[in-house]
């Protein structure tokens, strides 16, 4: 017999979750959704149900999604060449149109539809809606190893948030609607910008003074040198782990997003494995959680 079907087990789990339901009642929870979790139908369905449950027990979930692999597939399909510089996709005028089409179109609406099928009321938006996410062009420089001269890298329409209007998202919090945000921003000149989804989630979490920022990734969380999960870290500990090389590569921008969110007023930012079924609920409703929490 599967113990998860045992009524006593179910009752015990619900009882343990009750204090967390009270703690997070009325709180903003920003969830960045992406990675392999988006490509697995069963996990995607579980994720939608988890988000609906969070809303129904009194939380205000805000979903921010990525879509790098889907963008890459569409660019290849349309035979549009694309390159990366320092992990950021160079986005010219032709590419940004496709990026917006994929992010604000197919991906956003598929997540909205999944949440609606699970019994929720989701609405898809991007930073262009009500101009709630103003962005500016990302500026990067790179030092030439031979001449030691820094040169400016032109990434095209790659942006970073400069202003988030919290009143737009607060209007959803006062209703039964769950916002699903595509990471597209608009410049003061009306230009469209492609923005890293983690960065958008962190900026929204800070602007909304969220209780939690959850970054669903394809790894367990932050690991030590023995590849053991570190369940909780302070900002100072994170910076020390970056300095000694324990945190490296693609994990650095993720923890930096968490640090910026915490510095901006978010109570806790968590990096967790989105490939684990119901990872969001396990993090919110259990004592140990399933990832690495970063606090100030």
Helix content: 25-40%
The N- and C-terminal alpha carbons lie at a distance of 44 Å
Largest sheet: 8 strands, mixed
- What is the strand content? 15-25%
Structure description:
The protein has helices at residues 7-23, 41-56, 68-77, 93-117, 166-173, 197-207, 235-243, 251-263, 279-285, and strands at 28-33, 60-65, 84-85, 88-89, 121-126, 133-137, 140-143, 150-153, 159-164, 177-182, 184-186, 192-194, 212-217, 232-234, 268-273, 292-295. The protein has 296 residues and is α/β, with parallel strands linked by helices. Strands 5-10-2-1-13-15-16-14 form an eight-stranded mixed sheet, sandwiched between helices. Strand 1, helix 2 (41-56) and strand 2 (60-65) form a beta-alpha-beta unit. The mean pLDDT is 90.
Write the layout of secondary structure elements.
Elements: H1 7-23, E1 28-33, H2 41-56, E2 60-65, H3 68-77, E3 84-85, E4 88-89, H4 93-117, E5 121-126, E6 133-137, E7 140-143, E8 150-153, E9 159-164, H5 166-173, E10 177-182, E11 184-186, E12 192-194, H6 197-207, E13 212-217, E14 232-234, H7 235-243, H8 251-263, E15 268-273, H9 279-285, E16 292-295
Parallel strand pairs: 1-2, 1-13, 2-10, 5-10, 13-15, 14-16
Antiparallel strand pairs: 3-4, 6-9, 7-8, 11-12, 15-16
Helix pairs in contact: 2-4, 3-4, 6-8
